[in-house]
Structure of Diacylglycerol kinase:
Amino acid sequence: MNKATGVTRIIKATGYSLKGLKQAWQHEAAFRQELMLLVVAVLVACWLPVSLLERLLLIGVVVVVVLMELVNSAIEAVVDRVGTEHHELSGRAKDIGSAAVFVALVFAAIVWVSILWPLVLG
């Protein structure tokens, strides 16, 4: 089997990535919710009177949440594919993936509060 190289490889990889995003949208409610959160975050960040760097941080931390959700969903899909019976390592993998999303959400909240707090206090 010949592996694609150059531009062909990039085109195929892009197709696989878009397919993955479509699968996440179709099968993962948390991904849909966090993507909607990203849309709201972009709108709010663009409306706020903050610097470009702060705006990028506000949006970027929510992008990190979406990225972690994609990784978590991939881990869960692989674990579920391997088997449905309870196994300590399977549970650990799912819990760690979930923890990654949680840490990203906490980090996002800290960044948003840190940037918005001075605006609220005026």
